[in-house]
Design goal:
Elements (H helix, E strand, L loop, with lengths): L6 E12 L2 E14 L22 H16 L2 H7 L5 H6 L8 H10 L7 E12 L2 E9 L25 E9 L2 E4 L8
Antiparallel strand pairs: 1-2, 2-3, 3-4, 4-5, 5-6
Amino acid sequence: MKKKIRFVMIAAVLAVTSACGAEPVRPTPNPLTDIGQPEVNTISTIEVINTAISIDGSAYSALLQFFDHLHTGHYQEAVNLYGGSYQLIIDQNPTIDPADNVALMKSACTTNGFQCLQLKVAGIEYKTSPNEYLFTVQFQNDDGSLFELGPCCGASETEQPPVSLFEVRVMQVAEGDFRILDMPPYMP
């Protein structure tokens, strides 16, 4: 079954989550692909269409699979697709063996405040190097509504407006082999 694909041009401030909220990166129009509500383990059925930027479907597929694995609790599979740092998660979990990436990933999603939600929208921003892509993603709450990262640490919405667009880097490590370099949004 093919999922409907819809491109949405959004002029918004992209964000990168920090330990205490989101920090604006830059305003830009961005083509996003609405991936709808994928069923578990059917992400490969999503058709990738993006005429604005040439994209390797394997990078997009790795991105979708990584976040699907986190959301569904398949942490070993998520670890296999993750190529970023575990240092923050290690620091937050002194009782977990720093070499046990599966336990660290599980704790990140279930205890430490990383929002391991289902992807709602994913689109490529640009290719940052011959081996790295920058995607812009949005997540959905369990009820299907758009996830927004609100103000942190006593800030007001005026001081720190809610953010729903997040950047995720995907790097090619070998022919057809990609790793996700960024974790989902973090809420302290």
